[in-house]
């Protein structure tokens, strides 16, 4: 009897233990799921923050770039208005040939106004495309045009924030590049991030006031067999071998606190991988760094 009671009590204790163990597991599971949801939400916010930060870097450059075509539009509009007044006088004086010649000039001015208006429209559309979340829409993308556009926008954007900043801009675009199928705004974000990092690197080295140092950033493209390469090279301080294998990890940054989220290169790496490509870095400490994007045609 005592043995039976002992076994019953033991089974009862085991049952209670299993019950509470199950409850604890369920509670732990709920806590893990809640923490995971919070982590995903925070990650999404940080990614959006990174995207908006890159848009902020573009804004000043966009303002500079859009001012040029607007100046042309204003100037050609004023000239055309004056020409139309002259044409009216010539018509009143029955100088048909002079009026026709003036009309031809006005036509040419209108063509220039249309050209620069489309240029401004393209810049605005590019800005809106960059600010939107990626739709995943793959379309023929002119890589040379995209790289050149972001190169100039990033430079003028930085110049607008810091008038003292200056660097030699070099390009070497392969004329055989053509277009590739890609999500243009995503590739643009990657190129912008690499260029912005290059500008930061040369500016930091410039602060060392080394004799004869000239900050230089080179953006180049090259078509090799069934792949296209986009490279961003700078002559900054380079990257320490100690951290070279960490630079594509999320939240890793060599910038001072508050100057970087550590997500730029991580997101760039993921975007390029999603396109079936690769993102590599070649660096010599003290000499500079070169980031190369490789994408399938």
Could you walk me through the main structural features you see in this protein, from its secondary elements to its overall organization?
- With 297 residues, the protein is an alpha+beta fold.
- It folds into 2 domains: 71 residues; 159 residues, Heat Shock Protein 90 (2-Layer Sandwich).
- The protein is 61% helix and 15% strand.
- The protein has 5 helices and 7 strands, in the order H-H-E-H-E-E-H-E-E-H-E-E.
- A 5-stranded mixed β-sheet has the order 2-4-5-7-6. The chain has a two-stranded antiparallel ribbon with strand order 1-3.
- Helix 1 packs antiparallel against helix 2, helix 1 crosses helix 3 and helix 4 runs antiparallel to helix 5.
- The radius of gyration is 30 Å and the shape is elongated.
- The N and C termini lie far apart (82 Å).
- The mean pLDDT is 79.
Write the SSE topology:
Layout: H1 2-92, H2 96-131, E1 139-142, H3 143-161, E2 168-172, E3 179-182, H4 184-206, E4 216-224, E5 227-234, H5 264-274, E6 278-284, E7 288-296
Parallel strand pairs: 2-4
Antiparallel strand pairs: 1-3, 4-5, 5-7, 6-7
Cα radius of gyration in angstroms? 30 Å
Give the beta-strand count. Answer: 7
Note the run of SSEs as H and E.
HHEHEEHEEHEE
Total helices: the number is 5
The CATH architecture of the largest domain? 2-Layer Sandwich
**Uncertain spans:** none
For the largest beta-sheet, the strand count, sense and barrel status come to: 5 strands, mixed
């Amino acid at each position: 009897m005592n043995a039976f009671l002992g076994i019953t009590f033991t089974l009862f204790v085991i049952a209670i233990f299993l019950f509470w163990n199950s409850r604890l597991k369920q509670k732990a599971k709920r806590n893990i799921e809640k923490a995971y949801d919070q982590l995903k939400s925070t990650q999404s916010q940080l990614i959006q923050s990174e995207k908006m930060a890159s848009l902020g870097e573009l804004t000043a450059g966009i303002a500079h770039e859009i001012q040029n075509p607007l100046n042309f539009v204003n100037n050609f509009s004023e000239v055309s208005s004056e020409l139309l007044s002259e044409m009216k006088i010539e018509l009143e004086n029955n100088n048909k040939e002079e009026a026709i010649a003036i009309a031809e000039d006005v036509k040419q001015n209108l063509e220039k106004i249309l050209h620069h208006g489309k240029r401004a429209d393209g810049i605005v559309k590019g800005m809106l495309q960059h600010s939107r979340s990626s739709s995943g829409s793959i379309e023929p993308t002119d890589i040379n045009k995209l790289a050149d556009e972001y190169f100039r926008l990033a430079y003028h954007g930085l110049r607008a924030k810091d008038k003292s900043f200056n660097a030699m801009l070099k390009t070497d675009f392969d004329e055989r590049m053509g277009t590739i199928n890609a999500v243009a705004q995503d590739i643009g974000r990657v190129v912008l991030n690499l260029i912005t990092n290059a500008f930061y690197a040369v500016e930091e080295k410039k602060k060392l006031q080394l004799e004869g140092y000239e900050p230089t950033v080179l953006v180049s493209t090259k078509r090799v067999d069934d792949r296209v390469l986009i490279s961003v090279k700078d002559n900054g301080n380079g990257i320490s071998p100690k951290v070279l294998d960490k630079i594509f990890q999320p939240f890793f940054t060599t910038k001072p606190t508050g100057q970087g989220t550590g997500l730029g290169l991580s997101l760039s790496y993921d975007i390029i991988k999603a396109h079936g490509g690769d993102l590599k870095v070649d660096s010599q400490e003290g000499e500079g760094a070169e980031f190369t994007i490789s994408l399938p045609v």
